[in-house]
Amino acid sequence: MAGAARGNVVVNAEECKGCGLCVESCPPHCLELGAELNAYGAHPAHYTGHDCTGCGICFYCCPEPGSITVYRVKAKPKAVAVPGGEYAPAL
Ligand code: SF4
Ligand code: SF4
C-alpha cells in the first residue's frame, strides 16, 4: 500500500498537446494520456490520482506553458525536544 500522497498534479486539458513527455518522465508512472480528445484533437494527459511525489519532473519536461501545475503537500514543522521534556516547533 502506498504512503500518504506528497503531491498532486492538475493538467489543463485544453492546453495539453498530448505529446506524452510527462507520462514518460514521471518516475512513479502516475500520469497517462486520456481517451478523450481536446480542442486540438489531442489526447490530453491526466493524473491517475495516486502516487504523485510532487517532484516536478513532469512540469519541467512539458513543452506547453500552463499545461501542468504541480502541488506539493506542505510539510508540518518538526517538533524538537526542549529542556523540561516538552516539544516545540523547530521553526
Ligand atoms: S510531480 Fe513527479 S510524481 Fe507527480 S506527476 Fe509529476 S513527475 Fe509524476
Ligand atoms: S508534457 Fe505537457 S503537452 Fe505533453 S502530454 Fe504532458 S501535459 Fe500534455
Task: Summarize the topology.
Blueprint: E1 7-11, H1 21-25, E2 31-33, E3 45-47, H2 57-61, E4 68-72, E5 79-81, E6 87-89
Antiparallel strand pairs: 1-4, 2-3, 5-6
One iron/sulfur cluster is lined by residues 11, 16-22, 44-45, 61-62, 64, 67-68.
Overview of this protein structure:
The protein is an alpha+beta fold and 91 residues long. The protein has one domain (7-74): Alpha-Beta Plaits (2-Layer Sandwich), CATH 3.30.70. Helix content is 11%, strand content 24%. It is built from two helices and six strands. The chain has helices at 21-25, 57-61; strands spanning 7-11, 31-33, 45-47, 68-72, 79-81, 87-89. The chain has a two-stranded antiparallel sheet with strand order 1-4. It has a two-stranded antiparallel ribbon with strand order 2-3. A two-stranded antiparallel ribbon has the order 5-6. The longest helix has 5 residues, at 21-25. The chain is elongated. The model has no long low-confidence stretch (mean pLDDT 89). The structure holds iron/sulfur cluster (2 copies). The site of one iron/sulfur cluster (SF4) has 15 residues, from strand 1 and helix 2.
